[in-house]
Amino acid sequence: MTPATTLRHSPCDLLPAGSIPALVTPMCEDGSIDWSSFRALIDWHAASGTNAIVVMGSTGETATASIEEHCELIKVAVEHANGRLPIIAGTGANSTIEAIELTEFARKAGASAALSVAPYYNKPTQYGLFVHFAAIAEAVDMPLILYNVPSRTAVDLHNETVIRLAQIPNVAGIKDATGDIGRAIDLMRQAPEGFALYSGDDPTAAALMLLGARGNISVTANVIPEIMARLCAAARGGDVATVREISRRIAPLNAAMFVETNPIPVKWALAQMGKLLPFYRLPLTPLGSDKHSIIEDALAFALGTGDPVLRAAS
Fold this sequence. Notes:
This protein has 314 residues and is an alpha/beta fold. The chain is 43% helix and 11% strand. It has one domain (12-247): Aldolase class I (TIM Barrel, Alpha-Beta Barrel). The chain has an eight-stranded parallel sheet. The radius of gyration is 18 Å and the shape is globular. It is found in: Cytoplasm. InterPro entries: Aldolase_TIM (IPR013785), DapA (IPR005263), DapA-like (IPR002220), Schiff_base-form_aldolases_AS (IPR020625).
């Protein structure tokens, strides 16, 4: 498949850099979306130094959102951010046609870029992955960020395939959630100039940014946006001393965000902070009570205080 020559390469400088939370989706007890809390989270991030927001990524429970909700979340995020923050819209699907439709919606809604996960469950070949992403890039003229997260999709987007895709207009970067620094360095070495690599793995994100990654699409940034913004700025600026200090403080929190399946822990933490209600959609279930103290202690340590930082858990 050869993409249309009328489409443009999307320069790396059109994409946001730094701390980019993969935003949670607040919900009410009946499973409906809590729009008030959703807008308040955007306000909080805009005031906290966050550089951009991903809406409808894995952390946003996109797997259980309807197409109508998916589109409305993108639309509301763009409108409410109102230029204060770039919105990167999660538009991936295991159907190429659906991924194209979601990406086109995101373009019309005013999103800055689309984040497209490798098709899950149907396990395409590397050639299938190539033509899937090429079809999206050909159909929709906006920056496309590939998303490789084999632990969730059961398919791995190989570096060789990424390099082929990076030659295509509109394929502007990748979110690499493998946590494999050596693999990411090799990709940055081979990729064309202007191709952006984002970390999708909080424990290794600072190291990867010191080595040239553009930013961190993060779970942990949902709960410590100011600290994560400082960490990303330090890493991108080569301030190793600050990177060491912050990284050591937030390491337990990075781990605590995955004591159960994401986004169960991060939404629980935000609920205790008064940012949303602790509700999920089945098959996700509430955080086990044996995990509460792990998150409380890790957040207290990250914030550098021995005092309680969460409201008492009910």
